[in-house]
Amino acid sequence: MKLWQKNTGSKIEVEKFTIGRDPDFDLLLAPFDVMASIAHAVMLEKIGLISTEELATLKKGLLEIYGEIENGTFVIQPGVEDVHSQVEFLLTQRYGEVGKKLHSGRSRNDQVLVDLKLYYRSEIREVIKEIKLLFDLLLDLAEKHKNDLMPGYTHTQLAMPSSFGLWFGSFAEALAEDVDLWIAAFNLANRNPLGSAAGYGSSFPLNRKLTTELLGFREMHYNVINAQNSRGKTEKVISFAMAGVAGTLNKLAVDAILFMNQHFGFIKFPDELTTGSSIMPHKKNPDVFELVRAKTNQLQSSPQTLLLQLTNMSTGYHRDLQLLKETVFPDFEKLRDCLRISTFMLQHIEVKQDLLNNETFKHLFSVEEVNRQVLDGVPFRDAYKSVGMDIENNNFSPSYTVNHTHEGSIGQLCLGQIGAKMENALTAFDFDKVEKQLGQLLRG
Predict the structure, then answer these.
(1) Quick one: which of 151, 345, 350, 409 has the fewest CB in 10 Å?
(2) C-alpha separations of 444 from 29, 63, 105 in Å
(3) Do 253 and 144 share a domain, yes or no?
(4) Does residue 233 share a domain with residue 88?
(5) Side-chain half-sphere of 65: how many Cα atoms within 13 Å?
(6) Are residues 375 and 419 in the same domain?
(7) Are residues 247 and 314 in the same domain?
């Protein structure tokens, strides 16, 4: 029997198909369902739909359930449709009729939606923590290796001198810019849909401003239809934010795989962080980075999955939206795993010193020689032709030094400015306010 049913039941085939993987995901939503229910109960008391005593009973019961969720004893019992039903059943079972009053003024649509917003907001915070850890490590590595030169490539051909400092710093700044995408995702997740009901509001005199404050939301979705239509839109923006970070990690992984190759030998890792071969004793395979490459490619495909799923869907709730969880929820875990293992691997990276002191890389310095002649007064086209002829005739003997001084170059990495870029981006997240508000709510 479901909360929304009257006297008939669903065929088992229909029930199994429509529920899908939701029970697994609902356990992740459980703590947020309780938080939202406490805020809703407080609001119901304020507008006179329940008494002060009933509110006290509901809060006591909800906090008990929250404790069970936290200690891992909460389960969705067989035959119970979802986490929302389980919470209401437990309240009714333990405290009687008052449990049946909790759903007044809300629909399962806005109940699910507010749970999702709270869950996404929490997950975004965890992702940002992992991004910041990797970012800080990359800045440290960039400073440590700012004077260690390496080849730079275009078209995978030797191009110009680069440095490990420049390489590490590039990924740090990329992550700082990726955070801008997460700001947009967080802003959408940080808007309160509770009170939109099925998408058309309620005839109860709900106080949506109060639940917005209690749950630490920055603001509400004011239009109730727009609140419902934000489901899907929020997930799309989150997915694009994930894809942005995934793209950065993907390029880092691909570079690491290439640079570990014996023909390059630019970097290496301890043997225990690589894998061997069953028949080739010399092998040190970059399995970690290969899996990061694969997983980040999967993450970069997710926006297209969501875009196609949300195509041709009219205004209002549709059951199709349930399937968004099957992409977004696992993607959060996958992205965090990729961030953590990338940080772990880079904590053990070894960089080859004096890499460019090798005849193999002398043509990297052709542009340096052209520029030196130009600075001495030779027209650029003449200098370019002269150096080109020296290379063609095998007479090119450059100086193996570089003198780059402009912002963002080998000689001026601007690590302080990149660090400030990240710190400025992080101020857009009011995580502390959210934690404070939810803490007050859970203290009863």
Answers:
(1) 350
(2) 20, 8, 21
(3) yes
(4) no
(5) 33
(6) no
(7) yes
Q: Does residue 74 sit in the same domain as residue 174?
A: no
DSSP E strands, 215-346: 219-220, 267-268
Domain that holds residue 376: 359-392
pTM: 0.92
CA–CA separation, 244 vs 331, rounded Å?
Answer: 13
41 lies in the same domain as 182: no
pLDDT in tens, 324-383: 999 999 999 999 999 999 999 999 999 999 999 888 898 988 999 899 999 999 999 999
Q: What is the pLDDT of residues 30-48, one digit of tens each?
A: 999 999 999 999 999 999 9
Residues 378 and 292 in one domain: no
Q: What is the DSSP string of 393-437?
A: TT-----S-----STTBTTB--HHHHHHHHHHHHTT--HHHHHHH
What pLDDT does 170 receive? 98
3-class DSSP state of 280: coil
Q: How far apart are CA 106 and CA 57, in angstroms?
A: 19
Enumerate helices (H) and strands (E) in the chain, giving the number of each.
15, 6
